[in-house]
Amino acid sequence: MALEGGDMSVFAELKRRNVVRVAVLYGLAAWLILQVAEVLFGLLDLPTWAGKLVLGLLVLGFPLVLIFSWVYELTPEGLKREHEVERHQSITRETGRKINYLIGALAAIAIVMIVAERFVPRAAPNPGATQAGAPSASAPVLAATKSIAVLPFADMSEGKDQEYFADGLSEELLNLLAKIPDLRVAARTSAFKFKGEKVDLQDVARKLNVSHVLEGSVRRSGNKVRITAQLIKASDGYHVWSQTYDRTLDDIFVVQDDIAGEVVKALKLTLLGTTSATRSRPTDPEAYNLALQGRFFVGRRSKEDLERAVDYFQRSRERDPGYAPAWAGLSQAYARQADGGFLPIADGHRQARGAAEKALALDPQLVDAHLAMGWIQLSHDLDWAAADASYRTALDLEPGNAEALRHGGWLAGNLGHWDEAIDLMHKAIERDPLRPNSYTYLGYLFLAVERDSEAEAAFRKALELDPDGAARHRTIGLALLLQGKTDAALREMQQETDEGWRLAGLPLVFHALGRRGESDAALAALKDKYAGDSAYQIAEVHAFRGEAALAFEWLERAYAQRDAGVPEIKCDRLMRGLVGDPRYKAFLRKLKLPE
């Protein structure tokens, strides 16, 4: 009983000196400080250690505050040591009431924050739009809890010659996870931006707007492969799961399914219909290996790389004629050869169509096959309904597929469905925030609806992401020109590094400035050097200068050349002067576009 009475006496003294109240007040204040710091540090892009430093200081401060409140007492004359204050002169009771008010206020604030966090739906900010709709990959966004980026696995093989295999494994995992409806997966283009870089995973997660990152390494020797994978939570950098697999190439699909299953388990998702039993699998492991090499080279797009891609896909197809991904990859390679001018357009798309049809016949659930067919229908056939069906099927199979969203947005824009097109392009950017051409497409759509300052911001974002890309300054110059900022437009056009695009832009600005001779000279140079590649851009210049007959003449040439710009005519503000001409409606009918 004496011990209990002694404890009560000590506790009563702690209460009298307001030590207990100060402890509660400090705890609430510290919690609120941490919540505010988390938001501010994210906005200011401060490193992770800054948050840990604040937490450490708050923890160290707790005993110091308690000691201080025990030793000192607040009096009307200021702070005094507790033993120097006569008990009848003490105002600790009044001070305690004030502390109670503060505790109540902070508790109310904390409750409101907790309720808002738990029950109020939070619309995910669109990383494709910030102020005035301007895209920015650096804008702070709130990552969905169930979101992930699959970074390219590192090649740890002794000969450093398995980069294609490591990339292929990463892409297979990405595609596998992308089929899960409740999981948002960053697209390959953006995730692979960090390939070969020493990265801060939290910075990567912020740029890709994801909450988790999957990374790993591959060490391959002959038919044996060691795969290490680890899932990391971006908010604190902690490993959620990691595993090392020592397998043969024959077991690669089992390993992929195992990794995907562990990710799904960690994120509390449901994996439906994405196991190896429902995916195309080669009967010959070497067919898979060859297809991975083909996929590696098709992503590089040069004439030589595309030729190597075709060779690898053909060899994969020969090893295993029933392996659908090899046929889909071959279709993509043929189409890129045709689009790049490395094959006759008609021949290239004919071969691409045949390979895509074979892939679909072998595996109707293969997303890449639907994407390959959709591109042929969109860019070569001008069959808008069929292309739309292909992309919608791809999205049904893989919700949020960035390529399907991007091309679907381009298709909607060509048809004049501006709101739908802009919405789809924003969604593509959300999944693939570091792909510069998505911002370029978005910029053209903004121009179509006369949101010119937003178009300028989108074009500048594309330049930021890809400073050496063709037409980057020309597009900015075009947005400035349509805003009436002709001097600034001229400066941008003159900075364009690609000669063809520079010559396509200068005649427009010189005409707007009333410098007809210089406009004619630049246009003549464009025709002299690039008539075979830039017929549509030449038609744009004539239309902008009010030369309708010449504009239609060059539009016909562009149509014959299957110029990729032709289907975009309804989006094109430079062509608006032709709209009232009967020849314009006739041209739209030729393109199977609504009038």
From TrEMBL:
What Pfam families would the database entry show?
TPR_16
* Signal peptide start-end: none
Instruction: Please state what the protein is called.
Output: TolB-like protein/cytochrome c-type biogenesis protein CcmH/NrfG
Keywords noted in UniProt? Membrane, TPR repeat, Transmembrane, Transmembrane helix
Q: Which PROSITE patterns match?
A: TPR
Q: Which SUPFAM superfamilies match?
A: TPR-like
Q: Which residue windows are transmembrane per the record?
A: 23-43, 49-72, 99-116
Task: Output the PANTHER family linked to this UniProt entry.
Answer: BLL7664 PROTEIN, CELL DIVISION CYCLE 16,23,27
UniProt source species: Lysobacter niastensis
Residue spans of the TPR repeats = 402-435, 436-469
**SMART domains, per the entry:** TPR (SM00028)
